[in-house]
Design goal:
This protein has about 210 residues and is of the alpha+beta class. The protein has two domains: about 80 residues, lambda repressor-like DNA-binding domains (434 Repressor (Amino-terminal Domain), Orthogonal Bundle), CATH 1.10.260; about 100 residues, Jelly Rolls. The protein is built from five helices and eleven strands. Helix 2 crosses helix 3 and helix 2 crosses helix 4. The protein is elongated and about 75 Å long. The two termini are about 35 Å apart.
Length: about 210
Amino acid sequence: MSSDPKRLIRIARETGPAPSVEPMDLGPRVRELRKAKGWTLEQAAAQAGLARSTLSKIENGQMSPTYEALKKLAQGMDMSVPQLFTPPSKAQVSGRISVTKSGEGMAHATTTYEHELLAGALTKKQMLPYRATIRARSMEEFDGWVRHDGEEFLFVLTGVIRLYTEFYEPVELRRGDSAYYDASMGHNVVSVSDDDATILWVTSLT
């Protein structure tokens, strides 16, 4: 760990004749917590009952706060003292969003389905959403079962479909009906409408 005095804060424990100390990178953590609340230095200092200059020095690693100061800071942040030194268990919210207007998805056609990939601009997604037009009218049009990793959800948008799965009897689904299933199980969908049916398909990628 760096020995730069501006980055290390040594916090003495309250008890014991010879308090032990441990290096803590407290400054960046306090700054992160403050900014997550949308507070200025003045606002955060007021919440904690500390001087603005004191909080600034803590954030910049220029002073070793007393335990009393830490307690005030933690109370002002509405947390416990240990939480000041505990990094968040998950990454901060990234705020990602992708809007796909009707008909503007990435098209991918096959002999049985016509897929329109949604949210195509986002990378490293946890789900793969797409709108599908079901062209197939019978199982004979497929070259065996479709299988892949993950789980899958389908929602019928228009028409009537028949969902075939490897271990269950076929089920007929109409507009507004849905199904959720293990995608590693063989599955195929055909339209039993006069026109091609359309469905929303969402596949997990984990």
